[in-house]
């Protein structure tokens, strides 16, 4: 065993496997401690060789061994959790990661657990674990982590918790103000059925300020709200904003149709366009008194 331990210190993993196999084949009686070290060293050697499945088979045999202290067991279970994460064995990640968290305060463990819960569709536990991660980061004055917030949002959406979804988008735009996060937040606020016309107008003001309009017709809708609220000047500003941005507001695709079955004619699995080369016509908002027109004639 001494030779196997020396080889492990030098990270000569194949030599570790050879020496431990020799020790295992020896017919002399082995103590509980000897058996523990044989499986431990073989597990580490397989892991060092990226033979993760074989490594877990060795580690599983000693996970409850009395030869480890509680501190050692916590580190051992943390390692086992990470290996199972590499193997996409989410049930084992949850089993060993939960036990490891009771014994060690490793900041990475909740991330593995939160992901595993999410991938097994246990959304309440995924949200609970990840909210704990974010709370700790915020207590330390650190950003909550973009992927952490996205994972919580995904769990909330799966649970149809709109309030939670909105909260995550608010944090995302605060710490990671990307255009897509602003658009998601604005769309969520626009779709709030409880909001009043005045609140919708406030959302529109925010959306216009951050450039987060994904539905051009919202300009017209909010302009009508502004007029109803006695704000014709703001209504005009909204429409001018829409015109200035030259938003595409409609797109139509024309395809050939079989006169008998009324089904689209397909070539290589794709519909045959009947208007120009692409079969697409689009209308635009544009500056006043300007018209955008494209035409093509095939001979």
Structure overview:
With 299 residues, this protein is mainly alpha-helical. The protein has two domains: 207 residues, Alpha Horseshoe (Serine Threonine Protein Phosphatase 5, Tetratricopeptide repeat), CATH 1.25.40; 54 residues, no CATH class. Helix content is 61%, strand content 5%. It contains 14 helices and four strands. Helix 9 runs antiparallel to helix 10. The longest helix has 17 residues. About 8% of the residues have low confidence.
Note the topology.
Layout: H1 2-9, H2 13-25, H3 32-48, H4 52-60, H5 70-86, H6 90-101, H7 109-119, H8 123-139, H9 146-158, H10 162-175, H11 179-190, H12 197-210, H13 217-228, H14 232-245, E1 248-253, E2 266-267, E3 270-271, E4 280-284
Antiparallel strand pairs: 1-4, 2-3
The overall number of domains is 2
Mean pLDDT: 81
Provide the low-confidence segments as ranges. Answer: 248-252, 276-293
Looking at this structure, what is the CATH superfamily of the largest domain?
Tetratricopeptide repeat domain
Q: Major β-sheet, in short?
A: 2 strands, antiparallel
Radius of gyration, in angstroms, nearest whole number: 31 Å
Number of strands: 4
| Helical content class | 55-70%
Shape: elongated
Proportion of strand residues = 5-15%
Q: Strand order across the biggest sheet? A: 1-4
* CATH fold-level name of the largest domain: Serine Threonine Protein Phosphatase 5, Tetratricopeptide repeat
Assigned CATH class of the largest domain: Mainly Alpha
The number of helices is 14
